[in-house]
Structure formats: structure tokens, C-alpha cells
């Protein structure tokens, strides 16, 4: 996995929070060399990342752009970590 993009509706608050949480989780896992950035849904395109992280309410709109990790609670780092591990073990 080389790139993760975190997406929310406007690409400002929620996606930036997700980006910070993904970076913290990857650091906690000892994973390095993964580019993490955030964006808005309107700028998304297919193949923009190895995996896209978003809130569950956006999943149906985002999954057409690639592998997607959707979160029920974007504040929950435990849920995020479990889903990143599951994605990495595919």
C-alpha cells in the first residue's frame, strides 16, 4: 500500500481529521512509506489511491473510485485500525 486518501463532502474538516487519524494509526502500527492525504468527494477519481477512507454515509458514492474503508465513527481509531489491518491482510 502506497497511498491512502481520506475523503469527506467538502474536503476540509472530516477528511483532515481522518488523515490525522490514519497517520497516527499507521505510526502506531510501525507502517511507514505510505502517502496519506485528504480531499473532497467532488475531486475523487478512480485510481486516486490504493484505498480511500471515508465515513459510512459516503461509502455508496465513494466506492466507485476504488477500494474503500468506511467508518461508522470517524473519531474511533480502534475501528480505523481494525479496518486498515483487514485491508492490508487481503
TrEMBL record:
Keyword Cell wall biogenesis/degradation: no
Boundaries of every PTS EIIB type-2 domain copy: 2-90
MF (Gene Ontology): protein-N(PI)-phosphohistidine-sugar phosphotransferase activity
InterPro entries for the chain: PTS_EIIB-like_sf, PTS_EIIB_2, PTS_EIIB_2/3
Keywords annotated in UniProt: Sugar transport, Transferase, Transport
GO terms under biological process: phosphoenolpyruvate-dependent sugar phosphotransferase system
Protein name: PTS sugar transporter subunit IIB
Amino acid at each position: 500500500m502506497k497511498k491512502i486518501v481520506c475523503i469527506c463532502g467538502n474536503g476540509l474538516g472530516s477528511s483532515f481529521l481522518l488523515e490525522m487519524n490514519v497517520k497516527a494509526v499507521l505510526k502506531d502500527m510501525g507502517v511507514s512509506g505510505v502517502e496519506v492525504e485528504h480531499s473532497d468527494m467532488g475531486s475523487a477519481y478512480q485510481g486516486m489511491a490504493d484505498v480511500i477512507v471515508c465515513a459510512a454515509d459516503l461509502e455508496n458514492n465513494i466506492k466507485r473510485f476504488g477500494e474503500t474503508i468506511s467508518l461508522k465513527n470517524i473519531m474511533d481509531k480502534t475501528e480505523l485500525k481494525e479496518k486498515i489491518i483487514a485491508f492490508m491482510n487481503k
